[in-house]
Amino acid sequence: MANDEENVGNVKKLLARVFELSLQATVPDETDVEPIVTASTVGRFGDYQCNNAMGLFSKLKGKGGGQFRGPPAVGQAIMKNLPQTEMIESCSVAGPGFVNVSILKMLLDGIDTWAPKLSIKRAVVDFSSPNIAKEMHVGHLRSTIIGDTIARMLEFSHVDVLRRNHVGDWGTQFGMLIEHLFEKFPNIEAVNETAIGDLQAFYKASKQRFDDDSEFKERAQKAVVRLQGGEKRYRDAWAQICAISRREFDSVYKRLKVELEEKGESFYNPFIPSVIEGLTNQGLVEESEGARVIFLEGFNIPLIVVKSDGGYNYASTDLTALWYRLNEEKAEWIIYVTDVGQQQHFEMVFKAAKIAGWLPTEANKYPRTSHVGFGLVLGEDGKRFRTRSTEVVRLVDLLDEAKSRSKAVLEEREKDKDWTKEEIDQTAEAVGYGAVKYADLKNNRLTNYTFNFDQMLSDKGNTAVYLLYAHARICSIIRKSGKDVEELKKTGVLSLEHQDERVLGLHLLRFSEIVEEACTNLLPNILCEYLYNLSENFSKFYSNCQVIGSAEETSRLLLCEATAMVMRKCFFLLGITPVYKI
Ligand code: ARG
């Protein structure tokens, strides 16, 4: 039983499998007994328990007796028939036949064997996805943070994740951008970032020209056609504008340590005609007011797939991208992370794909698609988040401010006296960016949240700062003990006697269940809540149980180490860099 392969996955599920074998051996004639396994709430007897004895006893009695004298006897038999497994350290029967098992040993066996087991090999996470030349706003920041965590949880679960940046790099706005570029820089080879300056301002200026000057407007419209026709001068100008935007996006990704692979809207252009043709041949596409559309039951507007001017749109691209991800990239789960405002768009695209037979109609069957929607980021005034000086918040400025604020705190605490400049800088970054990420992830993503530096950078309450400090404190307890914790892991025994030790140990054991829940439901806040409670349980343990110098020192140091290990894994999954000293 006890090979590594079988240690992978959700503890509760694994135990259920073990108990199933035991039940089969205990009552071979009963074919439909589902093992009932729960986490023990008292914890005095074990970590998990099997609750089948009572029900099984009455069932057997109803059939005219059976070989057992009472539920405890059934419990004893279930325990006796448990297969040998390294997962279970010890077991006992309590009360009316509850079979309790202790599985603490797993805590120290290395956390990577705790990953959820999913039935899919490959997923696409479509996230961040800002638009060229338009502002990358806080909505995109949310998408970047939430999408990265979802990708990390899937990767942890051994899924091959294609991290897709579906940037808006195509569309009619490029006509005016290119014309404006030609106008301002007749010699476009010389154009670079510094020449254009702020791309957003450039966008605004060209929009102004477009709205004010009908002759310019006409040229811009022609430019779109020439761009789509692949004319070199136009393609080059387009590529130039994209490159400038891309550099700006990359500086945000670099700060946040987020990996993304760009396949922008333009990538799918060559595939659109045949995809639309396929759908048309299936009889899905109809003519409506000059456009070509797909009517979908349950929606009061149709999905427009070819505009009345013959051009393609957001939906044509998304249908084609979905087709590509399913057929070319062989993705089984395709996840889109955008604000809730786009929910209907995705519902319509998914529905069309189901009607076309690309996706099974049953929910939860693979291949499947999910839209991960999120709410707004609000300012102090309760309105959409903006700063005083500009209408939109520049993400880079936001991150810089988070960093410099946490740096100021470190300097205030005179850390610069014994830390190197580099240490200060790295810690300020870990804490500052971690705070921004955590403030976003800890809320159920569908709710709006208020962006508040003071709150997110506070070292009290449910913040990254509090959690990172808690982790650093645990590390310092271990350091102060002067013991080699890796040695202790090999030789020491971890046993939980005190109530607060048990609560903490049991909470640690739930880690894999929680990751599975957060991952399969696409809800990072579940993991945040787990992490926060873990830290609270640790504080309680630490204030009531002496670690260094106590008779239980070894066991308690191991418990500290297990806690730090699980915390670091949570940080990792949330994209937060841990700190080891404070
Ligand atoms: N560029 C879009 C926006 O900024 C988000 C794209 C999301 N992904 C997609 N496949 N449509 O709103």
TrEMBL record:
What's the EC number here?
6.1.1.19
Say if the entry is tagged with keyword Aminoacyl-tRNA synthetase.
Answer: yes
- Name the residues that span the membrane: none
A GO CC annotation recorded here is: cytoplasm
Which PANTHER family does the record cross-reference, listed alphabetically? ARGININE--TRNA LIGASE, CYTOPLASMIC, ARGINYL-TRNA SYNTHETASE
**Which family does the record claim for this protein?**
Belongs to the class-I aminoacyl-tRNA synthetase family.
Q: What does this protein do?
A: Forms part of a macromolecular complex that catalyzes the attachment of specific amino acids to cognate tRNAs during protein synthesis.
Protein known as: arginine--tRNA ligase
Q: Which organism is it from?
A: Linum tenue
The beginning of the lineage is:
Eukaryota, Viridiplantae, Streptophyta, Embryophyta, Tracheophyta
